[in-house]
């Protein structure tokens, strides 16, 4: 049974570590899938990036793949988590504004708000780090 209002300092370490790892998985999966889709369809992705008016769509393509797939993988593994989370938060805000911000279109505005929510999740991850079940924690323990 879950108790309410348990201070973080009193939460069992495995519960907190599992929640942090699962949260990272949930944040990472959409970026891994989207990045993989871009990797497997570069021509279509570059055309789509160009169609929204982004200058130098080829550079945008490589940046999107790097941030989405690379950042998603780093978040999943819990490696360089704070840096990856900050990059992905910025990416979510930028793509939300560039791609999804259309006040007259309810569907696009829902996507825009989801991007902002994901940015919020990444900012939380930036603030607290990856947790005990992460490569960041393993590497940090080796230094001690």
Question: What is this entry, summarized?
Answer:
The protein has 144 residues and is mainly alpha-helical.
Descriptive report:
76% of the residues lie in helices and 0% in strands. The chain contains 6 helices and no strands. The chain has helices at residues 13-40, 42-51, 57-77, 81-100, 106-128, 135-142. Helix 1 (13-40) packs antiparallel against helix 3. The model has no long low-confidence stretch (mean pLDDT 92).
Q: How are the SSEs ordered, and which strands pair?
A:
Elements: H1 13-40, H2 42-51, H3 57-77, H4 81-100, H5 106-128, H6 135-142
Q: What portion of residues is helical?
A: over 70%
Determine the mean pLDDT: 92
Termini Cα gap? 36 Å
Structure annotation, total helices: 6
Biggest pleated-sheet summary: none
Shape: globular
SSE order in H/E notation? HHHHHH
The low-pLDDT segments are none
Using only C-alpha atoms, the radius of gyration works out to 17 Å
How many β-strand stretches? Answer: 0
Strand percent estimate:
under 5%
Compute the number of structural domains.
1
Look at the helices and sheets and give the structural class: mainly alpha
Provide key terms for this protein.
mainly alpha; 144 residues
